[in-house]
């Protein structure tokens, strides 16, 4: 079974929405509404949306008609290459490895040249010589320091995987939102056409004495509302698409997306999802890696007080006796007062705090999972009921009312009303499918969001980190 890191890479580069089930009644264009015999659109309503909305339209890029459609695979691949937070997370790893390298380097030796009493009685001095001095690090401090920062690099690796999931999840979320907005726009156009037919029908009925001015005003108001709803649907598409582009990291021209909201996956079990998050979530794994780093930090600070040995020596020349000489000195600090007591306590406090941080994170993830699972379960219940009962029943009602009209047993406004209700319920179905898909993405993606938030630092705020020559 691939590790979660391999899974994250595959998801980020090649993830696709699972399942290929079609959106019931929402993907294919419904049968056109036949106009009743003799009903001529002799006085069509004003359908110029620019005029209706006083020319206030989205000024961004218009849809491309010859550029094809974006797929989720393409957008995920672009995000992997261009989202800046992924590069930030990778350089967090590089920085920790660089600290590990620096922390394990041995101290440089020092060379000193000494001349004593130069110029006394016009001489070159009593003694001149060179001394080489070296600090010998004790208690395996350098190796422990290197181990600490290597462990921090592992924390950074987990956080980088978490950032990949954040970007991946957000791209999937906004892909689904844009896809849903596209489908809603198609249905909103049908509602506008229904409102236009209703207004024309009302005018004809007014001419025949079968309707009054109140009915005409209501029909006209309904048309204007549907025109505004269509404008809102167009605005929504562009908003979702350009937000999607932000997570991808590329300024793409607006064009349609190719995909499907429906999913044939089995119902997610809450307990299994929670256990999976506890086992595999990169946030949890990063927290456990940080705890191991804090344990190493305690060990490192516990030996910091052990004094290093500084040895120096070298050859010289005594001008008074004309003899070649040598010097040797050994220095060691006596740890009488400062045994690094305060820093040891600080490191121990960080370790205990990190233990509680793991528990806090587990509880926070459980709370977030409970919220998302409620959305997922409610949306799944709505989708199942709408697909199996509500939408089929309303479609049957529309077909029955249409046949009744053709047999002169029903009025055309009744047919339009039924079709309007049928289309509204299909829009609601798309919204429920979108909510279900959003919750699925988050639950399957370890509840990670924030693909444009700065990559997390492997050292949490407040933890010990500022020491000269990192240790």
TrEMBL record:
Residues 1-20 form the signal peptide. Pfam families: OEP. GO terms for molecular function: efflux transmembrane transporter activity. Residues 344-371 form a coiled coil. InterPro entries: MdtP/NodT-like, OMP_efflux. Keywords: Coiled coil, Signal. Belongs to the outer membrane factor (OMF) (TC 1.B.17) family. This is TolC family protein.
């Amino acid at each position: 079974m691939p590790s979660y890191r391999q899974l994250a890479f595959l998801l980020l580069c090649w993830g696709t929405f699972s399942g290929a089930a079609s959106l019931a009644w929402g993907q294919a264009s419904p049968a056109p509404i036949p106009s009743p015999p003799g009903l001529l659109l002799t006085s069509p309503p004003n359908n110029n949306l620019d005029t209706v909305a006083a020319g206030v339209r989205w000024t961004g890029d218009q849809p491309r008609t010859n550029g094809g459609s974006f797929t989720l695979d393409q957008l995920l691949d672009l995000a992997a290459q261009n989202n800046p937070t992924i590069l930030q997370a990778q350089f967090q790893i590089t920085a920790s490895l660089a600290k590990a390298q620096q922390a394990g380097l041995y101290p440089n030796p020092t060379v000193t040249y000494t001349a004593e009493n130069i110029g006394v009685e016009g001489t070159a001095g009593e003694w001149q010589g060179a001394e080489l001095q070296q600090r010998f690090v004790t208690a395996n401090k350098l190796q422990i320091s290197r181990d600490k920062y290597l462990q921090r690099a592992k924390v950074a690796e987990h956080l980088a995987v978490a950032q990949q999931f954040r970007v991946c999840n957000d791209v999937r979320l906004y892909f689904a939102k844009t896809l849903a907005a596209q489908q809603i726009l198609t249905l909103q156009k049908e509602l506008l056409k229904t409102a236009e037919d209703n207004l024309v029908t009302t005018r004809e009925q007014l001419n025949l004495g079968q309707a009054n001015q109140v009915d005409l005003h209501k029909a006209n108001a309904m048309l204007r509302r549907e025109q505004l709803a269509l404008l809102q649907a167009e605005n929504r598409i562009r908003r979702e698409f350009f937000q999607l582009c932000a997570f991808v990291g590329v300024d793409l021209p607006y064009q349609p997306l190719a995909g499907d909201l429906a999913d044939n996956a089995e119902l997610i079990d809450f307990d299994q999802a929670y256990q999976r998050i506890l086992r595999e979530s990169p946030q949890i794994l990063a927290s456990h890696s940080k705890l191991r780093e804090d344990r190493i930090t305690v060990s490192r600070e516990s030996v910091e007080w052990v004094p290093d040995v500084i040895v120096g020596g070298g050859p010289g020349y005594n001008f008074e006796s004309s003899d070649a000489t040598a010097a040797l000195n050994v220095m060691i600090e006596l740890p009488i007062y400062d045994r690094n007591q305060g820093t040891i306590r600080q490191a121990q406090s960080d370790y205990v705090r990190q233990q509680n941080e793991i528990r806090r994170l587990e509880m926070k993830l459980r709370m977030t999972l409970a919220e998302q699972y409620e959305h997922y379960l409610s949306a799944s219940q709505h989708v199942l009921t709408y697909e199996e009962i509500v939408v089929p029943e309303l479609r049957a009602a529309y077909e029955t009312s249409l046949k009744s009209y053709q047999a002169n047993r029903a009025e055309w406004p009744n047919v339009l009303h039924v079709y309007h209700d049928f289309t509204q319920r299909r829009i609601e179905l798309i919204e429920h499918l979108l909510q279900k898909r959003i919750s699925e993405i988050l639950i399957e993606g370890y509840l990670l969001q924030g693909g444009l938030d700065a990559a997390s630092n492997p050292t949490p705020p407040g933890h010990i980190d500022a020491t000269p020559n990192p240790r």
